[in-house]
Amino acid sequence: MTSGLINLNETVTWRGKHFGFYLTHKSRITAMVLYDYFLDEMEEGKFKTFKHKHYFEEKNGITIMTDKLQYEIPFGIIGKLFDTLFLKNHMVNFLLERNKILKEVSEDNTII
Question: Has this prediction a pTM greater than 0.90?
Fold first, then answer.
């Protein structure tokens, strides 16, 4: 297991269960402005394209993170229907839950 911060041009591989299937997703950090922004883009995975932008901003001593996710899915009209009916909502909930965990971990001084 790797720990610590990821840097420009490094990759991260995730494996998780979604819709009853174990899926692997590999992204590379393709852009980074330290402390302000980074972009990860899929290199391997089930999406046609996948770009995840992360913005960080300090307001009144608090760090605010904003995610912007852009993706395309394969399988033409079937994929678009799946996205509309299931995937988009799943991705929003997935990011909200992941960000909740990131917040808890980053604020827990006992872990560091």
Answer: no
What order of strands is seen across the sheet that includes strand 37-44?
11-18, 21-33, 37-44, 49-59, 62-72
Rounded Cα distance between 70 and 49, Å, is 8
* Tally of CB atoms within 10 A around 87: 19
Residue 5: band (very low, low, confident or very high) from pLDDT cuts 50, 70, 90: confident
**What are the contacts of 16-19 at 24+ separation with CB within 8 A?**
18/90, 18/94, 19/86, 19/90
CATH of 11-107, one of 2.120.10.80, 3.30.830.10, 1.20.970.10, 3.30.530.20: 3.30.530.20
User: What is d(CA 50, CA 54) in angstroms, rounded to the nearest whole number?
Assistant: 13
